[in-house]
Design a protein that fits this description.
The complex is a heterodimer of chains A (378) and B (193). Chain A contains 13 helices and 14 strands. Chain A is of the alpha/beta class and 378 residues long. Chain A folds into 2 domains: 247 residues, 3-Layer(aba) Sandwich (Rossmann fold), CATH 3.40.50.970; 120 residues, 3-Layer(aba) Sandwich (Rossmann fold). Chain A is globular, with a radius of gyration of 20 Å. The longest helix of chain B has 16 residues. The chains are: A alpha/beta (378), B alpha/beta (193).
Chain lengths: 378, 193
């Protein structure tokens, strides 16, 4: 039965995993992720979900176990943040190479030192070159719904890649807001059980096979190219997954991007996650003050929505990218990606990077308004 | 309808839980509410803040509440300690747990629409104690419902009983209702004086 409750972003993620009927959960606690796996552990303990919970001794092992479960044909889930994400990194790369469609929630948190538990996007963006599909949730409903959509995309036969779903630490993870918790039958209709094309424990398999053996250069490149092809295929799969989600549940979070106030816009703001929704609320105010500002929420950073972004950028005269992250010695990470995209598509709209909210520094509407005014009349 | 709320209590008094219970009670009445909390280096007794945004529309803001229409103060000593009243908007309602006569309280408070409840006595009367500390957060939600006219006290009680099944929920629901009945409202003190 569909219910409507006020829950935190972390509880929303746990519900997303539960409704996706995850079969194996392997995780290690870290603030601000911990309450996701606490909730799932509680449900496993009470027998409310039919899943195996593997308590591991580190994030490296969490991903190893999730990957192993996925290779054996199970739907696997994990979650982490920040330092835990970095400790897991070797296996993050491996999960993509091994083509195990694990779904992981990443509760974005700044990296130490200095020690900090608050929101920043640098952690997950460091994995943009690993072969994972990357979704960014802008509110708690989107966090729940993106977990379900992520399994649909990751397990698609044209894709078979792992997917991570990001949500801002505390900004969403520990903030409670109304969330629709979907009817299980509807989710089952949207997300069928995982049926892998190949898996290790398949008794019907006539010839056993191994994962992750050494490949010589002439074969290795072919396998890596197949990841690139899978990423390219995922663009249409993500669009279809978003469309069908809307048909069944009546909710639209965007596909690779989501536009707000982009009609007749003279300036666009690009941002990720809750920062994008914050920008959207600010744009609503700025529109009333006569500023023709639109917002593009970049919902997926891998595959990067190059065509969609170039098309929108070409229609405006100014662009601001708000980055709650930084690539030291280069730029805001999203800004760098967007600048490269515009160059590739021969779009010469000037792009201004605004790095904000580092280490959880609160991003107020005033900050966004000030940035817009600075650039608008330049 | 748009309200921003600041809850200020001391670590262990349940301000965070109060903001979440309030949001859940409002949700039952189809009122959209966020419950936000700032997590820092928590320790018992130190000031703790929680926030709500309340609207008839979904809210897309994701920052902490800076200035508020409603400020809920778990004990008078927090006024000077936190300077929280500097964050009150004009015409703000201040809800305070105090045993003292409202007329005798900090003159600063009388600039605002004031709601006073003796939540500590209510908790003690009901023997509502956790680790020897009176549980006042559920009473403060009752005071909020009285002062603001929403949510309905029955919604508050239902959510409390769901959150803590059994005797604990029963007692907390009683505390919220008792506070709802006993909260005194002092309108526009400033214009009178």
């Amino acid at each position: 039965m569909e219910t409507y409750d006020v829950i935190t972003g972390n509880d929303a993620v746990a519900w997303g995993a539960r409704l996706s009927r995850v079969e194996v959960i392997a995780a290690y606690p870290i603030t601000p992720q911990t309450t996701i796996v606490e909730k799932l552990a509680e449900w496993v303990d009470k027998g409310e979900i039919d899943a195996r919970y593997i308590a591991v001794e580190s994030e490296h092992s969490a991903m190893s176990a999730a990957m192993g479960a996925s290779a054996a044909g199970a739907r696997a889930f994990t979650a982490t943040s920040s330092q835990g994400f970095l400790y897991m990194f070797e296996m993050i790369s491996w999960a993509a190479g091994a083509r195990t469609p694990v779904v992981m929630a990443v509760v974005n948190r700044a990296l130490g030192p200095p020690w900090n538990i608050w929101s920043e996007h640098t952690d997950a963006l460091m994995a943009r070159d690993t072969g994972w599909i990357q979704f960014w949730a802008s509110n708690n409903q989107e966090a729940l719904d993106s977990i379900i959509q992520a399994y649909r995309v990751a397990e698609d036969k044209k894709v078979i890649l792992p997917a991570m779903v990001m949500l801002g630490g505390f900004v969403l993870s520990h903030t409670a807001m109304p969330v629709r918790i979907h009817d299980q039958d509807k989710v089952d209709q949207y997300l069928p059980p995982y049926s892998p094309p190949h898996y290790v424990l398949n008794p019907k398999l006539s010839e056993p096979f191994a994962y992750g053996n050494i490949l010589f250069p002439w074969d290795y490149a072919k396998v890596r190219l197949s990841i690139q092809r899978a990423m390219e295929n995922s663009v249409d799969v993500i669009k279809k997954a978003a469309r069908e989600f809307q048909e069944i549940f009546g909710i639209w979070h965007g596909d690779l991007i989501k536009e707000a106030y982009t009609d007749n816009a003279e300036m666009l703001i690009f941002a990720l996650g809750a920062v994008a929704e914050q920008a959207e609320a600010t744009a609503e105010l700025l529109r009333k003050k006569g500023y023709k500002v639109g917002v593009v929420k970049v919902r997926v950073t891998r595959p990067f929505p190059k065509h969609e972004i170039a098309k929108l950028a070409n229609k405006v005269s100014r662009i601001i990218v708000i980055d709650r992250d930084i690539s030291f010695g280069w730029d805001g990470i999203l800004a760098g990606e967007i600048k490269a995209t515009l160059h590739e598509h021969n779009v010469d709209t000037p792009v201004t990077t605004k790095i904000m909210g580092i280490g959880g520094d609160d991003i107020l509407p005033d900050h966004i308004e000030k940035a817009v005014k600075e650039v608008y009349n330049k | 309808m748009y309200y921003e709320v600041i809850w200020v209590g001391r670590g262990g008094q349940g301000a965070v839980t109060a903001s979440r219970i309030l949001a859940k009670a409002l949700n039952r009445e189809k009122i959209w509410a966020q419950a936000i909390v700032f997590f820092g280096a928590e320790r018992r007794g130190a000031p703790v803040y929680a926030y709500n945004r309340i609207s008839d529309q979904p809210i897309k803001y994701h920052h902490f509440v800076t200035d508020a229409d409603v400020i809920v103060i778990f004990e008078p000593s927090l006024i000077k300690l936190t300077n929280v009243l500097s964050r009150a908007r004009d015409n703000a309602t201040v809800i305070i747990n105090s045993a003292g006569r409202s007329e005798d309280m900090d003159s600063e408070l009388h600039k605002y629409r004031l709601a006073v409840v003796d939540a500590t006595s209510i908790a003690l009367q009901l023997n509502l104690l956790v680790a020897g500390i009176p549980v006042i957060n559920t009473a403060m939600i009752g005071a909020f419902a009285k002062a603001m006219g929403f949510p309905l006290i029955d919604s508050v009680k239902e959510v409390i009983k769901e959150a803590w099944p059994g005797k604990m929920g029963e007692l907390n629901a009683q505390a919220s209702e008792k506070a709802y009945r006993e909260t005194r409202i002092l309108e526009n003190i400033k214009s009178v004086s």
